[in-house]
Amino acid sequence: MDRVIRRTGWDKDSTTDNGNRFLTANGYMGIRGTLPEYGRNELAAINLAGLYHKVGNGWRESLNAPNPLYVLHRVDGVACTPGVMPYASHEQALDITRGLHTRSTVFDLCVLRDERFCSMDNPHLLCLRSELTGIRGAADTDARTDSDIWEIYGPHYNHVESGADKGVIWVLAQTDTGQQVAVARRGTLAEDAESRVYTCCAAIYTSLDCQNPLAAAIRALDDADYDILRRAHTAAWAALWQCAEVSIDGDPFAEEALNYSLYHLLSIAPRHAASLSVPARGLSGQTYKGAVFWDTEMFMLDFYLAVQPQAARACVRYRIDTLQGALDKAAEYGYRGAFYAWESQEGGFDACSDYNVTDVFTGRPVRTYFRDRQYHITAAVVYGLMKYTRWTKDMSLLLDGGYEVLAQSARFYLSLLWQKPGSRTYQILGAVGPDEYHEKVDNNAYTNEMARWTLLTAAEVLAEMKGSHPAAYAALEQKIGFERELPLYKRASARLKEKKPGKDGLIEQFDGYFALEDVSVDTVRGRLMDPREYWGGANGVAAHTRVIKQADVIAMLYMLRGRYAGKTTRANYDYYEPRTEHGSSLSACMYALAACMMERPDAAYPLFMKSAAADLAGGGKQWAGLVYIGGTHPAAAGGAYMTFLYGFLGLEIRQGLPVLHPRLPEGWKSASCKIQLGGFEYTLKAKADGSRTAIKAPL
Amino acid sequence: MDRVIRRTGWDKDSTTDNGNRFLTANGYMGIRGTLPEYGRNELAAINLAGLYHKVGNGWRESLNAPNPLYVLHRVDGVACTPGVMPYASHEQALDITRGLHTRSTVFDLCVLRDERFCSMDNPHLLCLRSELTGIRGAADTDARTDSDIWEIYGPHYNHVESGADKGVIWVLAQTDTGQQVAVARRGTLAEDAESRVYTCCAAIYTSLDCQNPLAAAIRALDDADYDILRRAHTAAWAALWQCAEVSIDGDPFAEEALNYSLYHLLSIAPRHAASLSVPARGLSGQTYKGAVFWDTEMFMLDFYLAVQPQAARACVRYRIDTLQGALDKAAEYGYRGAFYAWESQEGGFDACSDYNVTDVFTGRPVRTYFRDRQYHITAAVVYGLMKYTRWTKDMSLLLDGGYEVLAQSARFYLSLLWQKPGSRTYQILGAVGPDEYHEKVDNNAYTNEMARWTLLTAAEVLAEMKGSHPAAYAALEQKIGFERELPLYKRASARLKEKKPGKDGLIEQFDGYFALEDVSVDTVRGRLMDPREYWGGANGVAAHTRVIKQADVIAMLYMLRGRYAGKTTRANYDYYEPRTEHGSSLSACMYALAACMMERPDAAYPLFMKSAAADLAGGGKQWAGLVYIGGTHPAAAGGAYMTFLYGFLGLEIRQGLPVLHPRLPEGWKSASCKIQLGGFEYTLKAKADGSRTAIKAPL
User: For a pLDDT cut of 90, what percent of chain A falls above it?
Assistant: First the structure.
């Protein structure tokens, strides 16, 4: 495999999209795909995983590091950058096979080529080589660590020191809450009359890593050599691709888009950490506060389970380790058990603001209910935990906190329930479902069914635990006293109101949904007076119509597949799909998966491609009200993979073995990939004629 | 008594205020206090009681009649109206003793005096005399029935016919739903070189009155004579004032303001009807759709009970007769029993729109929850019914439908309740209390306590009924089967969540209120970007603060006085009053009443005056979003009366007899009024020295 994504030519308005498109990352950090001479105005950033800080009344968000790879050449005093110095050609490229970002610009006065990578071998390292040749004039080079960085709610560093130590230039940036980000670099400039070659190796350590991150960063550059580091880096990528690559014979664009999606998932996988999850916009910046959403459990975990099980483990482990945050949040709202964070930062702190959208007409913050009412997040966490456990057969996470998560999650749903006096039916009131455009709705089908599933799963798994791990069971009972609640889980799951399919097979998304105005997505869009308007909230254009943001009933039908008849899926797909804005990158892939369940791969295909190419194509919704929501879309990438694996290949695990039920889209001759399962690596392949193979090999 | 309200001088911007200030009405119709030469642009209107119609997507609203009293004089072709013809002086006046509207303008080319009244003797009649004298030039007079009328959501008449019949000019206006409004007039013009006197008697009948309203209107003018009708009219007013007048020795402005308020209440009292209530803006126009709100039960009924018991009976009867509308509304929302209309039109139809406010920035309708969630309206209806019954000892309304209202109201509250599985506490979720700025709140103290009061009252009164009226009881049981619910009423009233006073005596207005932003009313006002902005709703400036629109906890403390300790009233008054915008005319008088309960008449006084002078002073809030809400404020008038009677005089009824506990404001030497009670008329008088008398006389 040798895949390179290229964009030729330059225009200013593509800078943001390219920053996402050409991202290089290694789970520890993400370097936005901006040119090396770019700074805060072009949204250049090195985004750090798992480190958060809040300034004043701004939102608490992830930190960006000072940028040690900044370099700007000038010839005759003119900056060598498109838009300033005239140029004949310009190309920016990303070699996804090797994880290399490159640029090549033929300026009037010189030729500039650079290469940059974020080491997949050592998560703290990042390197750049910048070659200026054919210089016609007097050249100079400004290479430095750029501390004047892009931040959405900054500045986060109230103290920045810098210095030099044996050829290493360092910057130590500190927040007012004691977080430290140390950035060291070792740069060399080789020059003659017609050329200059600047080479830089840099290291980043933070106070999350060790006591003295500055010393660690400096030490990491001992003997640092660009070429040696590059070899280790590309070898690491090769090892990743060995298992991760997918092949689609007959559809090169789909193959490129899907592998490009997997590039992103591999780039941001938390391989270096035992307990860390993936932010909703990956490591492409501070959008959504760098926080972890249900996106991980819903759409990324499947890929990691299949090809990066250690990363999957770190993600699930993160939820177990943040249980206390979920317990605290539940208590804050008067519930019991675990109410997981909608926007999870370290410790499970919910960074979601009560005012998460800004009104475009007044500039005022708008009260939203993502944080308070997306009760379904807890079910997603349990779903992820069980997905991990069932795929890997690894009981260690259940035993090391996972059982407790189960019990506290069921307890949470128990505490959510309401009933009418004298009625046996339990209800969940005032929820926000996956379709966030409709707030505080009663008996959202998705929420109710996922709550029921959680209650049942907890009841079953904890009952098994009593037999299989009696000592752990007794210890857990001692700790949180859940046993007397087990019958309540079952009772609640039996009594919880079900939004049953009607005669026509339709499931009402929530109580009263079918009474809302029935207009098309285009009609609702036509009512926008400002393209940045938020569609939901109390008064958004979609709020009082049947137009929904993303898969909701369909998400439920997919998540709980097997519980519903095929005709129910078909009826609801045909009803809800035309009413879905797909305003979330989580939407298209859900519909694609549902279409495959209905044996309609060709209906799934455009939705699959929309997901797979989300970041490759760029564009997409950049605003919710006046809040910037741009960045990469790893959930869409993961959803595309799921559509490929479960949808088109039709993978099911039966008795621990992979079984395919292929339904390839028109034009696909064959499709194949590898997965790790039960201690083996399987090469899965399906052909257009329906034949399929699963070849087993030792890991 | 001889009281005249005068305004001298003219400016265009006062036209709307004067239209309210100088209103003349007789319960059947209200003639806005505009000049006789005014038309739709100056909001001239003859508003009709109890007749409603809807056009297209507009709001269903009360009808205005064509105006038979229109008259415009011209001299040398120049219209005799301020702003067109130069003038030396201009006065508009209202003789509230006699119910006469007059104007007097000394123009450069003539002197114009006119007098107009809305007959208090015959509710169908209205008369005008217009005298032009000192004419210097060639005069002509345009007297006609103006059918080009002011309507908010019109035009309502799709067919207008006119004709003449034996000196009577008639207009018959019809709606597309068959309503007819017939307007007949008989006008005479007497003229000489220097003067012209136009005299007009007119009659209005509608299809609510009889089969052939046109014939009735024409017949009503047989032998109509201005002076004779005027004598009958002023005699009727004199009879009304004989009982209604209040005296305040030592405070002539308060005396004037309060009597002026009573003038309005007398003007709009539904004396002519057996079953009709009073719209929230009286008969001053189509504001609030001409609909009946809880204003009647809360603030007007007390005055009518004291001096116009037949009008009180008509108002209560109206609620009994509109029970079916309340049953239908409850069913519409999935409740049982009677959920009364928030904006009640004929038959109890709830005219309240789901979108009752317009966003000033976008012009879009805003979803509000007045209609769906103001559960407390049903309690207000029961409260009014019981107030009537307890004051008059007249059981006939209970027997003729009132008991059924009680049972259906308790049933409604029963059906509202929620509980947590395993908890004995019942809760009312998602309510809108009197303070409409906070929507969909849980356990609003006012709502819960009024619901509890309704449940308890229904349980007690229906239990009494079994003994006192066994046949009626059996018939009602046969009809609606309520008996098995009686124990549930009691249980629910015992279990319903109480917002108990804290250690500091404070009662939280609803769950979570004390967690809201605590800022001043002025701070919140300062956040307005447009003065017409609605403060409430999901995103209004007050919605997420502790600033409230109107008395809420204080309303509860007043309504259920006797249940709470004096220190509780004081603590909550001191807390909530500074946080109250008094954005409703229902607010100030509640606080005034509470201040009197606390023996602080001087704190009550400015709030009393604000209520009493609401329409005299004019101004006030004219807009909620882009919706016009101007008009007269009979609830404020009634609230002022209540403050006078129950607050300052301190009236209580003990064993059927009036007992005073005077607490007169500073400067009042004495205060007196008459009330009808138990078949007698009592002249009540309190003096500053604390002495008081109640002199009994036969009715």
Answer: 92
A280 burial level (CB within 10 Å; 0-12, 13-18, 19+) = buried
- Residue written as tokens 């550059």? A221
Mean pLDDT, chain A, whole residue set: 95
Q: What is the distance in angstroms between the Cα of B231 and the nearest Cα belonging to chain A? A: 57
State the helix-helix crossing angle for B634-642 and B587-597, rounded to 10 degrees. 10
Q: Are B120 and B96 in contact (CB under 8 A)?
A: no
Q: Which residues in chain B have Cβ-Cβ distances shorter than 8 Å to A488?
A: 421
SS (H, E, C) A565-614: CHHHHHHHHHHHHHHECCCCCCHHHHHHHHHHHCCCHHHHHHHHHHHHCH
Cis, peptide link before residue B155, omega less than 30° from 0:
yes
d(CA A42, CA B653): 78
Would residue B381 be called left, alpha or beta, if left means φ above 0 and alpha means ψ between -120 and 50 degrees? alpha
Distance to chain A for B279, nearest Cα, Å? 30
Q: With contacts defined as CB-CB under 8 Å, which chain B residues touch A426? A: 421
* Paired tokens of B579: 């946080």
Contact B366 A440 (CB under 8 A): no
A529 vs B362, B430, B544: nearest CB = B362
Does residue A226 contact residue A103 with C-beta atoms inside 8 Å? no
Closest CB from A415, A488, A538 relative to B367: A538
CA atoms within 13 A on the CB side of B153: 19
Q: What is the structure's pLDDT at B618?
A: 76
Q: In this complex, is the C-beta atom of A336 within 8 Å of any C-beta atom belonging to chain B?
A: no
**Interface with chain A: mutation pick from B362, B414, B428, highest number of A CBs within 10 Å:** B362
Token duo for residue B435: 């303070």
pLDDT at A694 exceeding the cut of 80: yes
What pTM was computed for the model? 0.91
**Amino acid A576: pLDDT:** 98
Selecting from B361, B492, B543 the residue whose C-beta is nearest the C-beta of A361 gives B361
Q: Are B132 and B117 in contact (CB under 8 A)?
A: no
Asked if pLDDT for residue A628 goes beyond 90, the answer is: no
Cβ of residue A385 closer than 8 Å to a chain B Cβ: no
Quick check: bond before B82 cis, omega within 30? no
pLDDT, tens digit, for every residue of B18-76?
Answer: 999 999 999 999 999 999 999 999 999 999 999 999 999 899 999 999 999 999 999 99
**A426 — contact with chain B (CB < 8 Å)?**
yes
Q: What percent of chain B has pLDDT over 70?
A: 99
Indicate if the pLDDT at residue A70 is higher than 80.
Answer: yes
Contact B130, B198 (CB under 8 A): yes
Q: Is B436 among the catalytic positions? A: yes
Mean pLDDT of chain B, nearest integer: 95
Nearest chain A CA: its distance from B361 CA (Å): 7
- Calpha distance B64→A357 (Å, rounded): 44
Name chain A contacts of B543, Cβ cutoff 8 Å.
367
The values of phi and psi at residue B371, to 5°, are -70, -45
Asked whether the CA dihedral B515, B521, B526, B528 is positive or negative, the reply is positive
Q: Rounded to a whole number, what is the distance in angstroms from the first to the last CA of chain B? A: 21
Q: In this predicted complex, what is the ipTM?
A: 0.87
Instruction: Give the three-class secondary structure for A431.
Output: strand
Q: Is A92 helix (H, G, I), strand (E, B) or coil?
A: strand
**A340/A384 Cα distance (integer angstroms):** 13
Q: What is the pLDDT of residues B234-267, one digit of tens each?
A: 999 999 999 999 999 999 999 999 999 999 999 9
Q: What angle do CA A388, A391, A397 make, to 5 degrees?
A: 35
Q: Which residues 343-382 of A are in CB contact (within 8 Å) with B?
A: 359, 361-362, 364, 366-367
Alpha helix stretches (DSSP H) within A245-345: 252-268, 295, 301-307, 309-321, 323-332
